[in-house]
Amino acid sequence: MRIGELARRTGVSERALRYYEEQGLLRPERRPSGYRVYGDADVAAVRRIRVLLAAGLSTAQILEVLPCIVDDDGLLTPACPELVDELVKQRDRIGEAISELETTRANLNTIIAGQRS
1-79 architecture in CATH? Predict the structure, then answer.
């Protein structure tokens, strides 16, 4: 299938698909004309990429972890033990960022409440 069909099947823009290719996340075949040709496996790969992006991973991180991710009937699971440690670190970083943002929001709420007095 060509890029437009992959975009329709995945709900991802052609621009994003080209970006994934630039980042090494997708490796479509190329016809002599230069057209990209994708297979059904690429539909699943885009799905995994989107889930990992939504989980807060960068494309560079996804490039590293994608070979160790297994799609187990719609649930992504790590197949490499060392990946779990990296995912835990990423989750902890996100938790710290959330905590900092909650503190910032509380400070703003205090300032806003003081203004209304």
Answer: Orthogonal Bundle (1.10)
